[in-house]
Design goal:
This protein is an alpha/beta fold and 286 residues long. The protein has 9 helices and 12 strands. A 6-stranded mixed β-sheet has the order 2-1-3-5-6-4, sandwiched between helices. Helix 1 crosses helix 8 (252-268), helix 1 (24-35) runs antiparallel to helix 9 (274-284) and helix 8 packs across helix 9 (274-284). The longest helix has 17 residues, at 252-268. The protein binds NADPH dihydro-nicotinamide-adenine-dinucleotide phosphate (NDP). NADPH dihydro-nicotinamide-adenine-dinucleotide phosphate binds at residues 109, 112, 134-139, 158-160, 163, 184, 201-203, 205, 229-231, 252, 255-256, 259.
């Protein structure tokens, strides 16, 4: 046995319910392998009533961190030692990392979106006007990060009034970016001065792959960057409509890879092999 040999793997993973179809293991394990790290990513079914015990288990087993998915992203706030300022604003944590004995809550969803925007579309959101379709968890994470990055104005377009108001109020009271709310009850016309449009609803997600958000598609222009959070399938009808009008498009697969890459770096301290992660997920989604 060489001096460097160790039989102990560092452990991370995801707590969720249901969780069996969560593909994150594929990209993180591919990344650990490519980076030569003896780390393992475990997909773990945790029922809602068992989250406290699971978080104690994470501490007891000295796991290096965890991802949280449905239904734990908000509840986990009760079991952390600290929460990053942007995750606290968003009100949800999707990644826990360890700092010594402390468990720190982070939210990498919006950060992943931002990285996709700045790296893949080479677009700095500072001073830009944004339209976000949806006001759920993904919309909250994306709009908070865009506001913190200096977006000029954000319009939230949402079907349910209460959720839309909560998000618009959050942006108006807790960030420097003014926000307005449009109640979404008919085809929405994207204002001509919009720079960035984001579908942050679940419309278009597999298996409902022909569904697309109810907007006036002729209001999309070549001057806009049009983005979708849907990772599967990456090429949604919404993005196809935007591309047909000459817009720059960004898919949800990029966001998913980058949020995982940011988590990978938080956990391991090593720059993530983004291309390897992208390829691994692309194979999963066919
Ligand atoms: P939520 O359930 O929290 O929010 C869903 C949002 O979509 C709500 O605003 C809801 O409106 C709206 N919505 C759903 N169906 C319709 C419809 N038919 N018409 C109008 N509005 C609709 O979900 P999340 O925000 O957590 O997730 C949204 C999507 O984002 C999912 O598909 C998920 O896969 C994706 N996602 C992608 C990530 C990535 O890395 N690519 C990361 C995280 C999420 P209302 O309030 O009126 O109900």
């Amino acid at each position: 046995m060489s001096q460097a040999t160790t039989y102990k793997s560092e452990l991370v993973g995801v707590f969720g319910h249901p969780v069996a179809e969560n593909p994150t293991i594929v990209m993180q394990e591919a990344a650990f392998k490519a980076a030569g790290l003896n780390w393992r990513y475990l997909t773990i079914e945790v029922y809602p009533q068992d989250l406290a015990a699971a978080m104690n288990g994470l501490r007891a087993m000295n796991m290096q961190g965890i991802n949280l998915t449905i239904p734990h992203k908000v509840e986990v706030l009760n079991y952390l030692d600290r929460v990053a300022p942007d995750a606290a604003l968003i009100g949800a944590v999707n990644t826990v990392r360890r700092e010594g004995d402390l468990l720190i809550g982070e939210n990498t969803d919006g950060k992943g979106f931002l990285r996709s925007l700045t790296r893949d579309a080479q677009l700095d959101p500072a001073g830009k006007r944004v339209v976000i379709l949806g006001a759920g968890g993904a919309a909250r994470a994306i709009s908070v990060e865009l506001a913190l990055a200096g977006a000029e104005h954000i319009t939230i377009v949402n079907r349910s009034v209460a959720r839309g108001e909560t998000l618009a109020n959050l942006l108006n009271t807790k960030t420097q970016t003014p926000a307005s709310l449009v109640i979404w009850n008919s085809a929405y016309k994207i204002p001509a001065n919009t720079d960035i449009v984001v579908n942050a609803t679940s419309i278009g997600l597999y298996p409902d792959v022909e569904a697309k958000p109810d907007i006036e598609y002729n209001s999309l222009t070549a001057a806009m960057c049009v983005c979708d959070v849907i990772p599967n399938p990456p090429r949604t009808p919404f993005l196809r409509e935007a591309a047909a009008r000459g817009a720059t498009t960004l898919d949800g697969l990029g966001m998913l890879v980058y949020q995982g890459a940011i988590g990978f770096k938080m956990w391991t301290g090593v720059d993530a092999p983004v291309k390897v992660m992208y390829q691994a997920l692309k194979e999963v989604f066919g």
